Amino acid sequence: MTDPAEIAGSGREEQVESVDVADSSVPVEPEEQIADEAAAADEAPEAPEPDPVAEAQRERDEYLDHLRRERAEFENFRKRATKERMDALDRGAEQVVSSLLHVLDTFGFALAAAREEDADNQLAKGVEMVYAELVSVLKQSGLEDIEGVGSHFDPMHHEAMMQVEAHPPVQEPTVVEVLRPGYRFKGRVLRPASVKVAK
Predict the structure, then answer these.
(1) Other C-beta atoms within 10 Å of 90: how many?
(2) Residue 56 belongs to a domain
(3) Chain centroid to CA 194
């Protein structure tokens, strides 16, 4: 029979041998090989560190470009707002001036009647001064008379109320009498002149 100690001892030898076999299967690397691998790892290309100066310049350029765009956009907005405000003021002034055209007509008729009756009438002179002042203020605001007698007939500025034969004949229709004056305000026709036209 086998002694249990021998059996136990023989198992230990096998275990030792198996450990030795296991240890012998692990390759042992020399120190030089480890040093070469460490050097190769150091030389491997890493992501380059960003240049802080170049990064700062890139950010500066982006901010400057953004600032320029914002400034240009604001300048365009300012110009557009100014133009819209001026257009609104012109439209308001045009409405006021347009409503005063009837007053100008009435003043004109009153002056014509006063001159026929008495040229030295003080009331007529006072009305004439008020009329002249009103016309002056309106003209400073942009009111213009539409061309009258002697001008060529322009359907954009004149309204033909009557037509007569011209003596001597004319090549183009010509205004020979203004029945009601016409006006422009800052280049736009407020009311065409009512005229008699010769052909």
Answers:
(1) 15
(2) no
(3) 41
